[in-house]
Design brief:
Length: about 220
Amino acid sequence: VTLEATAHTGYHFVEWTEDGQVVMDGGEPAAEVYTFIAEEDRSLVAHYALSTYTVTFIVEDIFETPVNDAVITFNGDPNNPGDYIFENIEPGSYSYLVTAENYHDLDGEVAVEDSDVNVEVVLDPDDTDITDPVLTGFSVYPNPTNDIFHVEFQSHSGKAVSVSVLSVQGQVVRSEKVSGRQTHRIRFDMRGFNSGVYIIKAEHDKGVLLEKVIVRQG
């Protein structure tokens, strides 16, 4: 006689038992199939367990630099900073929240079905709490833009300020340099560039300011 145990989706076979004793476990090859000679009545039980999987988060910033100290709260349970692996996760849909110092929080959902899952997370820098003694009133407008936008700020230093537009891959696509203690208004023309998110980087001798602009062509 040959018996075959077929697990439902989300479960896996564990073992065959008879009268509370294991007669074949899931570690043997083709253990779901149990073959024996029927010489008497037998009462066999197939045991199953819910399959679990591993969810791994990959956390980077918009410049593809790894963020190694984020805190990830998965389904309401936070891991320690930098611990991005959640094990023994049952199939289902789960919410997550990623927080890191000097970055905007990011939340989302991930579905676990029948395999391990990698979740790629990209964090935006948060400079709203940073006081820049050199540049004040920093603004980007219009944002979003169809083609042309302006970067405006007040410089309190006579030294040069370099303002660049970067793709999310970190490639410089536009750049201007200004100097002088005054209000600067720089015009950037994005016609001919792909729609998407670009990073504004204002760099001076005391530090760097970052902002985001969305380009929507057409």
